[in-house]
Amino acid sequence: MTGRAGHSSYRPAVTLHNDQSWVRAVAADVSALRGRPLADAAIAAIGHRLGTDLATYAELDLATLRLPDLATDRPVERAVLRRMHDQLTAHPLFAATVRGSRPYPGPPLQVTDVLSERQWRQHALYREIHAPQGIGAHTVALVVGSPPLLSWYQFNRDRVFDAREMDLLERIQPALIALHRRNPAPGRSPLTGREVEVVRCIADGLTVPATARRLGLAAGTVRKHLENVHRKLGTSGPVATVMRAVELGILEVPGRRPT
C-alpha cells in the first residue's frame, strides 16, 4: 500500500508558499466567486490552486444511493456521469470515505492511501471510465458532510498529492464543513465591531499577543473575543475562522483591503 507519508520528497508544480498564505488565497478565491453556488466556488478555487484536471462536488443519500447534487469544474458528458454514479460503490475510496465519516468526516484521503497506483490503474473503473476521459489517476476525496447525506469534494490530476498538500486540505476541511452546515446570507455579520477587528488581525497572520498590541488590548481580552467569534461563526482555529468570515462578507478579501 502506498500512503501519503511516502510522498514527502515530491515537489508539487504549483508553488504553495507558506501554509497560511495558501489557505488565505483559497479563501480569497472563494470570496471573489461570490454569487455562484458554494460548491462551484470551492471546486474552482481549490482545484485551481492544486492544478487539477477535474474537480467535483457530490452529495449522496446513503439510504437510496441517489445523488441529489453534483457539480464539476469542466463539462463532463451526462452518460459518463451516469456510469460514474452506477459504479460509485466500486470506487476504492467509497467504503473508506463512508467509514471515515461516522460520526464526523474523516481526514482527506487519496486513492493511493487505499490501493497502489498500479492497482488503481488496472481497476475497471479507472480503465473504462476515468482514463478515456483524460482524468488523472491521482484522486483525493475531501468529505464535508456526514451520513445519511454524505457530501464530498473530489480532486483529480496526473500527479500524486504530496503530504504537504494533504495537510493543507485537512486544514481547509473544517471551514468547508462549517460553510456547508450553516450558510446564511452574506453581509449579515453576527460579530461586534471589536470582534471584526480581532478577526482582521488574525487574517493578517498576527498572534494573540501581537493582536493585543495592535488593538491596545490585554491578551486575555483578545482571547475572550476569539471565543465569542468561534461560538458565533461555528468555527475553531484561525483558518476556518478567516474562511468563514470571508464567505459571510464580514472580512474583506485578503490582500485587497484598503490600507
From TrEMBL:
Database matches in SMART domains: HTH_LUXR
Domain of life: Bacteria
GO MF, one example: DNA binding
Claim: DNA-binding is one of the keywords in the record: yes
Ranges where the HTH luxR-type domain occurs: 184-249
GO biological process: regulation of DNA-templated transcription
InterPro entries linked to this entry: Sig_transdc_resp-reg_C-effctor, Tscrpt_reg_LuxR_C, WH-like_DNA-bd_sf
Keywords, comma-separated and alphabetical: DNA-binding, Transcription, Transcription regulation
PROSITE patterns: HTH_LUXR_2
Name the UniProt record assigns to this protein: Regulatory protein, luxR family
Gene source species: Asanoa ishikariensis
